[in-house]
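Hypothesis: this fold can be encoded by more than one sequence.
Test: take the structure tokens below, design a sequence, compare later.
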């Protein structure tokens, strides 16, 4: 079969050239249920024929709000095969976003996974006049089950489906993905088949997977990062397993023993912290050895140190086993990876590589590769092949820095029904990312901040908050942080401390603290410890950047709380507004 030019051809290629008996699997009760490549294609065709039976035409929009499950893929391929456009929506989005996205894209049908989502969308259904019907994957009282939709499939029309598939072009619109946005309504990013295939081709051969290897998926499929990774999996012919949930991730990893998965840095932070905390269960010499090993794992060139082999045999091997024992690679994206975490995981034999992208680039821009010499700690790696890069320097940026501009076939078609935003983002074919960066060693891209997040103190000095936040998050006592100071006389920070590490510290200090009481963050000794951490990092910052004041919060920022986007980015304006009195107090003191 020739090289795919439409996304659904990756499944055709797998069926015809290298069928996998366990192409895609999910867990039902205590049992893993698998679909072969042929099963997968049969289900996708059933969806396609049902879409045709329901009058769906080229370019019509259909929304999906669902957890990761095989039905998501059947739906996706089935829709692509008839030339319709999928509109994936985060299950964690607000009702306002549900309503806005479905109206903006004028969806005709909506597919939901379960009762919790249906109960939300049914509240705004009457406000979406284009919506003909809602179908659910789970059986829900009051909602039509997907089996009713699929019963309309007419297999006598299979040759017609083949003709429809032949008529679809690589430049046709495949999906509209609404960016979560930190302010205002989300924007619908239009991606063609070619946009996404360009990214698939760019990473083929770079990701350490091969036919039949077990791969675990848990990042939301509505996120373009995981969606593209999934098509890479289809291309290679791996055995794809969907985790039941984040809560069962540890158990699922143990069962599947995956070779590869994608994730966000937050998961790696939690795994890292869990490994550190495990040492508290030990005592005596075992505990000392454990924490000596932990200390070495955070150092560069650890493998060259005298005791590395001993620690690898006694401790690091156990950590690898806890992650299934087969990990050949992990790619993390969507947010900055702390350099110390990068060093730690690679030192213990779990290759972690940071990637960089955005939905508008479908999504790949740069990637640290697994091959020796093609990655660099503290950067997002090499710009992917056949993408042009330009750094546009502006006032307030350091020498060598500039806004990251890219040009290539990965650049979106534009924002759906938003020509003004499209014109502001794509100029002369260049995509203006809004990120500030510089090149290290003239080839590795380093992200230093966001253009719109640069702020100026009342003294007229520019500050890059993301740089400061990423550095401060290297502290094991800082879980989340936002740096503030726009039009203020100095820089301050709101900090969510890492509870478990403070519990360990309090145990060492024999402090009797109730960590269930939100006021624990106000304890003088806790405050002094955090000040010591701030002082430790302030030496790396220039005079203007130094954190002069801070306030600690006992509750994490969350998506449900409104402080984070569905991709876990800080909603700066929301946080600054929500804690405005606390911020004002820091400047009143």
């Amino acid at each position: 079969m020739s090289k795919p030019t439409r996304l659904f051809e990756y499944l055709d290629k797998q069926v015809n050239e290298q069928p996998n008996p366990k192409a895609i699997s999910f867990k039902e009760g205590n049992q893993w249920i698998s679909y072969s490549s042929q099963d997968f294609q049969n289900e996708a065709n059933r969806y396609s024929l049902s879409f045709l039976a329901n009058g769906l035409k080229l370019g019509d929009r259909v929304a999906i709000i669902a957890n990761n499950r095989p039905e998501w893929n059947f739906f996706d391929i089935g829709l692509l095969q008839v030339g319709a456009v999928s509109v994936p929506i985060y299950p964690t989005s607000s009702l306002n976003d549900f309503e806005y996205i479905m109206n903006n894209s004028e969806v005709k049908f909506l597919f939901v996974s379960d009762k919790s989502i249906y109960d939300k969308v049914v509240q705004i259904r009457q406000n979406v006049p284009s919506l003909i019907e809602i179908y659910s994957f789970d059986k829900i009282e009051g909602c039509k089950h997907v089996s009713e939709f699929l019963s309309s499939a007419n297999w006598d029309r299979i040759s017609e489906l083949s003709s429809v598939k032949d008529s679809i072009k690589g430049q046709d619109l495949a999906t509209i993905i609404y960016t979560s946005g930190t302010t205002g309504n989300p924007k619908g990013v239009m991606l063609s088949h070619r946009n996404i295939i360009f990214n698939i081709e760019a990473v083929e051969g770079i990701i350490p997977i091969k036919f039949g290897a077990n791969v675990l998926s848990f990042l939301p499929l509505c996120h373009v990062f995981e969606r593209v990774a999934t098509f890479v999996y289809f291309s290679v012919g791996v055995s794809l397993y969907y985790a039941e949930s984040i809560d069962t991730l540890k158990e699922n990893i143990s069962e599947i023993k995956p070779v590869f998965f994608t994730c966000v840095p937050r998961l790696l932070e939690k795994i890292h912290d869990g490994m550190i905390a495990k040492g508290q269960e030990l005592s005596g010499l075992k505990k000392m050895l454990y924490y000596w090993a932990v200390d070495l794992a955070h150092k560069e060139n650890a493998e060259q140190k005298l005791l590395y082999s001993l620690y690898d045999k006694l401790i690091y091997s156990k950590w690898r086993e806890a992650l299934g024992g087969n990990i050949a690679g992990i790619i993390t994206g969507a947010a900055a990876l702390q350099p110390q975490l990068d060093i730690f995981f690679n030192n213990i034999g779990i290759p972690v590589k940071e990637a960089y992208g955005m939905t508008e680039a479908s999504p790949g821009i740069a990637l640290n590769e697994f091959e020796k010499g093609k990655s660099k700690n503290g950067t997002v790696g090499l710009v992917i092949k056949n993408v042009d890069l330009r750094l546009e320097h502006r006032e307030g940026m350091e020498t060598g820095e500039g806004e990251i501009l890219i040009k290539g076939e990965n650049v979106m078609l534009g924002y759906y029904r938003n020509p003004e935003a499209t014109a502001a983002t794509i100029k002369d074919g260049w995509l203006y990312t809004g990120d500030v960066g510089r090149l290290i060693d003239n080839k590795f891209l380093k992200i230093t901040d966001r253009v719109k997040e640069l702020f100026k103190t009342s003294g007229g000095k520019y500050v890059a908050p993301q740089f400061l936040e990423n550095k401060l998050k290297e502290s094991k006592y800082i879980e989340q942080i936002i740096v503030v100071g726009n039009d203020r006389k100095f820089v301050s920070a709101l900090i969510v401390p890492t509870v478990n590490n403070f519990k360990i510290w309090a145990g060492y200090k024999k402090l009797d603290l109730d960590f269930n009481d939100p006021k624990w963050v106000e304890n003088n000794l806790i405050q002094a410890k955090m000040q010591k951490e701030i002082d430790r990092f302030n030496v790396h910052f220039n005079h203007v950047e130094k954190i002069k004041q801070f306030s600690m919060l006992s509750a994490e920022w969350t998506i449900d709380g409104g402080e984070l986007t569905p991709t876990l980015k800080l909603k700066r304006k929301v946080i600054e507004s929500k804690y405005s009195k606390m911020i004002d107090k820091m400047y009143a003191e």
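The two ends are 70 Å apart (CA to CA). The chain is about 35% helix and 20% strand.
Hypothesis status: open.
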